Amino acid sequence: MGAVLYYIFVLPLLYLISILPFWILYGISDFLFVLVYYVLGYRKKVVYENLKNSFPEKTHDELKNIERKFFRFLCDLILETLQTLTISPATNLKRCAFDKSAIDLFNKLNEEKRSCIIVMGHYGNWEWGGSSFSLMLKQQLYVIYHPLSNKHFDKLMCNMRTRFGTKLYTMKDTMREMIRNRNEVNATAFIADQTPSPEGAYWTTFLHQDTPVFWGTEKIAQKMNCPVVYVTVGREKRGHYKLYAEMLCENPKETKEGEISEMHTKKLQQDIIKQPEIWLWSHRRWKHKKKV
User: Fold this and answer.
1) Strand order in the sheet with 186-191
2) Which residues in the chain come in under a pLDDT of 50?
């Protein structure tokens, strides 16, 4: 019964939303913001607590201003993500494209036939960013993801992310698949600001708080000796983004334990401080506490 409802009602509705003109889409987003923020109050306590702990120097009014901007962005992001069901390559690139220096960096790695690891956060529109990479750059892009518990929505998200040639690794298969594809010049994208289990995580200070970080990005980079590139998706204005890239580490095997994890965490922190409203504050990033 659930599958019938999904394919008859839910999926057609999502596709209908995805083909709407952007001016209508953002009108819906404005309505959704009022509903989510003022009526439902979705995770407002979580967002405010995260902001308060991350920016202890800011006043209550300043934090509430960031909070409101975040929820407006979150509603935009949800509807922009749905657009990936039908968005054309030209429109995707008009609204989200790589900076020239980033293109030069990835082209240089490609010419040298060096695969790389991309590290980024839930910052800006990372979904459009993945599509832009596959449309603009020469490397095969692999994105690591967590399969959703609902098989219908999991299939939908996979279809959205692979429309323009991106391929996916499930997290548990990442190392095995990277080894299998080691003779291909590619780029593997890690979203580094998810919440790992505190046991076995690398702990650092991030936005004034003890924060666990997945070891995986660093350990795999060292094992494969793949250059690590930090990518950020800045928001220039509503519905328009620019991707930037920076080489963090050319030879991971030469780094000390924790060095790569510290580098990409600090880069993300700098981006969040610069444009705080476009990071995923509703995520329970600090639900685990460091054991003394």
Assistant:
1) 96-98, 240-249, 228-237, 116-120, 186-191, 140-145, 167-170
2) 1
